[in-house]
From TrEMBL:
Naturally occurring in which organism (per UniProt): Theropithecus gelada (Gelada baboon)
Family stated for the protein in its record: Belongs to the pseudouridine synthase TruB family.
Protein name: TruB pseudouridine synthase family member 2
Molecular-function annotations in GO: pseudouridine synthase activity; RNA binding
Transmembrane annotation, as ranges: none
GO biological process, any: RNA processing
């Protein structure tokens, strides 16, 4: 495979993770498919370089030595790609940008379990006839308000300054360091007791914290609730629409996905990180890392659809 093809394997792309599939197995599967695609291609002819070898002169009986020019294969540029190469650096930039993620979270009123999941060990059953959509919306507004105050606190910004005002207008207020889960938006999409469906925009979350959020909403409503489903629909600038399905986890589709995402990755990271970002490392539609050897590491999975 030529160096032009290798350069297309440096970048970020998203995949759709089916329910129940562990992310490590997903990563290994994608890596295997990339290797199959690379190995199926006809390898390029080795590049040649000239070396001068010391040896006896031909046709001479005396032990005279001479320098003979010959060509030998140069092994420096032989492809050893096992992943998305220097795009792994961009995963660190995504982390440092503290980008938000979107989830749909499904809850069930009337019971509590030991792990906040619907199939956990039952702890308590309660009535929920008094719960209305209006009461739920009021609780969600309170949660969003308290988390917005926490976001400002963790951002270490003085809201009276012009810089903070401009960042707030652009929606760029982010925590300076790692923080607890912060919710930037939450609303109810569907309410049909005992079931309800929430849309949650947040950062620094874990699956357990999202399940616990449903439990706490139940307590605020003077009842109980468990989480029956958590589904990620957006991870930073990657959405389900840009995520590769399992049937698309192959070399060609991954290369196309990296190329398609590159302009948005560059724009969003520059917007979020600004002066902190080394713009020389940002991808573009013509982004190429041919000047450096390919990486042998597939970066941690961050695909949408968890």
């Amino acid at each position: 495979m030529g160096s032009a093809g290798l350069s297309r394997l440096h970048g970020l792309f998203a995949v759709y993770k089916p329910p129940g599939l562990k992310w490590k197995h997903l990563r290994d599967t994608v890596e295997l498919q990339l290797l199959k695609g690379l190995n199926a291609r006809k390898p390029p002819a080795p590049k040649q370089r000239v070396r001068f070898l010391l040896g006896p002169m031909e046709g001479s009986e005396e032990k005279e030595l001479t320098l003979t020019a010959t060509s030998v294969p140069s092994l420096v540029n032989h492809p050893l790609v096992l992943g998305v190469g220097h795009g792994c650096r961009l995963l660190t930039d995504m982390y440092n940008a503290h980008l938000t993620k979107d989830y749909t979270v499904r809850g069930l009123l009337g019971k509590a379990t030991d792990d906040f999941c619907e199939d956990g060990r039952l702890v308590e059953k309660t009535t929920y006839d008094h719960v209305t959509r209006e009461k739920l919306d009021r609780i969600l507004a309170m949660i969003q308000g308290s988390h917005q105050k926490a976001l400002v606190m963790y951002s270490n910004l003085d809201l009276k300054t012009q810089e903070a005002y401009e960042m707030a207008v652009r929606g760029l207020i982010r925590p300076m360091n790692k923080s607890p889960m912060l919710i930037t938006g939450i609303r109810c999409l569907h309410f049909a007791p005992p079931e309800f469906l929430l849309e949650v925009q947040c950062m620094h979350e874990t699956q357990k914290e999202l399940r616990k959020l449903v439990h706490e909403i139940g307590l605020e409503l003077k009842t109980t609730a468990v989480c029956s489903q958590v589904r990620r629909t957006r991870d930073g600038f990657f959405t389900l629409d840009s995520a590769l399905l399992r049937t698309q986890w192959d070399l060609h589709n991954i290369q196309d996905a990296i190329r398609a995402a590159a302009p948005q990755v560059a724009a969003e990271l520059e917007k979020s990180l600004g002066p902190q970002l080394d713009t020389k490392e940002l991808p573009s539609r013509e982004w190429s890392w041919e000047s450096q050897g390919p990486s042998s590491t597939l970066g941690p999975e961050r695909g949408a659809g968890h």
